[in-house]
């Protein structure tokens, strides 16, 4: 069971706390203070926008991602075992190896696809050759600058896009809530 949990959470690049196993999948890399502050503001706007839209009712994976996107990063997010399969199915496919070698071209191609950008931030740390040292800032700025701001908050064109963009920004900031499996 631990092998399955480790595989799942390595795929989604979220921090994990499972029973007596504690594993945080984050890097020590961080964004510059000014970009981190802008990202925090974009996250807050996106959370307000998502809350204004309401909880999705027709898709279990979207409902789980919605709850996770709004979760407090300082508290573990409780997940039931039966939610693992739908959550795993919702995760984006691996980024093609060719897309990991040219960040500028990949961002131009993935610009309108926050789910692909989530996969990119997940997969870039393992790329060979390694990505440029500022890849986190470049990706964060891409998302920050493409957020549409409205009186209800900020979004990236649709509910799913906003979920994935928000999750990507939180991952880039190393501010994803840890996940704890319910017993």
Main traits of this protein?
single chain, 183 residues, alpha/beta, two-stranded antiparallel ribbon, 8 helices, 10% strand, globular
Spell the H/E element sequence: HEEHHEHHHHEEHE
The span between the termini is 13 Å
Strand content: 5-15%
Low-confidence stretches: 1-27
Please provide a written account of the structure.
The chain has 183 residues and is an alpha/beta fold. Helices cover 51% and strands 10% of the residues. It has eight helices and six strands. The relative contact order is 0.23.
Please provide a brief summary of the model.
With 183 residues, the protein is of the alpha/beta class.
Show the helix and strand layout.
Layout: H1 2-12, E1 16-18, E2 21-23, H2 33-53, H3 60-70, E3 77-79, H4 84-90, H5 103-110, H6 114-123, H7 135-146, E4 148-150, E5 153-155, H8 159-172, E6 179-181
Parallel strand pairs: 1-6, 3-6
Antiparallel strand pairs: 1-2, 4-5
Helix pairs in contact: 2-7, 2-8, 3-4, 3-8, 6-8, 7-8
């Amino acid at each position: 069971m631990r092998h399955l949990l480790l595989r799942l959470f390595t795929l989604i690049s979220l921090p994990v706390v499972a029973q007596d196993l504690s594993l945080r999948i984050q890097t020590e890399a961080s964004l510059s203070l000014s970009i981190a502050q802008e990202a925090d503001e974009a996250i807050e706007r996106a959370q307000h926008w998502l809350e204004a839209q309401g909880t999705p009712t027709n898709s279990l994976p979207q409902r789980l991602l919605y709850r996770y996107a709004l979760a407090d990063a300082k508290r573990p997010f409780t997940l039931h075992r039966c939610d693992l399969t739908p959550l795993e199915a919702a995760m984006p496919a691996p980024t093609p190896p060719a897309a990991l070698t040219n960040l500028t071209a990949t961002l131009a191609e993935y610009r309108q696809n926050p789910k692909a950008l989530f996969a990119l931030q997940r997969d870039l740390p393992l790329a060979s050759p390694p990505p440029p040292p500022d890849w986190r800032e470049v990706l964060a700025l891409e998302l920050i600058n493409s957020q549409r701001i409205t009186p209800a908050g900020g979004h990236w064109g649709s509910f799913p896009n906003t979920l994935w963009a928000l999750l990507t920004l939180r991952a880039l900031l190393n501010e994803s809530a840890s996940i704890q499996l319910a017993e």
